[in-house]
Amino acid sequence: MGDQAMDASKGQIHDVEDFNKYMEKEPETSGYYCKICQMYRKRGKADVRNHIESKHFPNTFTYNCNMCTYVVGTNKALSRHVQNVHNVQNKPVTNFHNYP
Fold this sequence. Notes:
The chain is 24% helix and 23% strand. By secondary structure, it is of the alpha+beta class. The strands form three sheets. It has a three-stranded antiparallel β-sheet, covered by helices on one side. A hairpin with a 6-residue loop joins strand 4 and strand 5. The N and C termini lie close together (8 Å).
């Protein structure tokens, strides 16, 4: 994949904040939707951001568990790991890296 993930139809992702450009606020509701597939709609921005990363840009970044050596390719996968393996709910994720 190189230093950055790239798909010609979607553009470049350099930072996790770049996922935000693929979500938009619903005009009629207080929710957000995925601009790539226009199928995923949720009230929370984090849910839509996780959808965009998981479904449209998987493995763009690596996320390291701060409690063990586990490494995954999405923020959601790390959250699930921390909840299921370490029994910690809602642990913030700050440890991500671009693929080398």
